[in-house]
Automatic annotation (TrEMBL):
Record-given protein name: Translesion error-prone DNA polymerase V autoproteolytic subunit
Organism: Nitratidesulfovibrio liaohensis
Class of this enzyme: transferase
Alphabetically ordered keywords of this record: Autocatalytic cleavage, DNA damage, DNA repair, Hydrolase, Nucleotidyltransferase, SOS response, Transferase
Family annotation (NCBIfam families): PRK10276.1
Source lineage: Bacteria, Pseudomonadati, Thermodesulfobacteriota, Desulfovibrionia, Desulfovibrionales
Entry-linked SUPFAM superfamilies: LexA/Signal peptidase
Keyword Glycoprotein part of the UniProt annotation: no
GO molecular function, one term: DNA-directed DNA polymerase activity
Gene of this entry: umuD
Family: Belongs to the peptidase S24 family.
Domain Peptidase S24/S26A/S26B/S26C: 33-149
EC number of this enzyme: 2.7.7.7
Annotated segments matching region Disordered: 1-23
Length: 156
C-alpha cells in the first residue's frame, strides 16, 4: 500500500457503536428455508418440491464475524457500484484494502464509501457516479481505511 495511507488496525477504531455485529448480541439467529432448486434468470425451469437445510444468511455474508460490521449507505456517490442510499453494507476489516476494492474510509474523521485507486504511489478515492469528483488523499495523515465492503443488501 502506498505510504501515507494507513490501514486502521482492527482494535484501534471500534465500529461496534456504529452498527451491530453478527451474530447479534442476543445470539438470535434467523434461519429461513433454502430451496434446493435454482431459479432461472432466463427461461423458466421446473421447480423442485423439496427444501435444503435452513439457511442462515449470516453464514453467506460474514466470513470473519469478529471483524465484520454493518453500515447504512447515505447518498448517491456509489450508485454505479450498486450501492444506493439506505443500502446495508457488510464491511469486513479482515479483508485487505487493495486497488479497486470498495472500502469504508475515514477522511478527517468522516466516513465515506469509495473505490480505492492505488497506483503509482497515489491514493485516490473514486466515486461511482459522474456527478461526484474523485478525492486524492495521497500523503494525508487523517485518512484511515475502516474495512472493505464485501456485500450490499438493498430492496428492489
Amino acid at each position: 500500500m502506498p505510504a501515507g495511507f494507513p490501514v486502521s488496525p482492527a482494535r484501534s477504531v471500534s465500529p461496534a457503536s456504529a452498527a451491530p455485529r453478527a451474530p447479534s448480541a442476543s445470539g438470535v439467529r434467523v434461519a429461513c428455508p433454502l430451496l434446493l432448486a435454482r431459479v432461472a434468470a432466463g427461461f423458466p425451469s421446473p421447480a423442485d418440491d423439496y427444501l435444503d437445510r435452513p439457511l442462515d444468511i449470516a453464514e453467506h455474508l460474514i466470513r470473519h464475524p469478529e471483524a465484520t460490521f454493518f453500515l447504512r449507505a447515505q447518498g448517491q456517490s456509489m450508485i454505479g457500484a450498486g450501492i444506493h442510499d439506505g443500502d446495508l453494507l457488510v464491511v469486513d476489516r479482515a479483508v485487505e484494502p487493495v486497488h479497486n476494492k470498495v472500502a469504508i474510509v475515514a477522511v478527517d474523521g468522516e466516513l465515506t464509501v469509495k473505490r480505492l485507486h492505488l497506483r503509482a504511489g497515489r491514493v485516490v478515492l473514486l466515486p461511482e457516479n459522474p456527478d461526484y469528483e474523485p478525492l486524492d488523499v495521497t500523503g494525508r495523515d487523517d485518512v484511515h481505511v475502516w474495512g472493505v465492503v464485501t456485500y450490499v443488501v438493498h430492496a428492489l
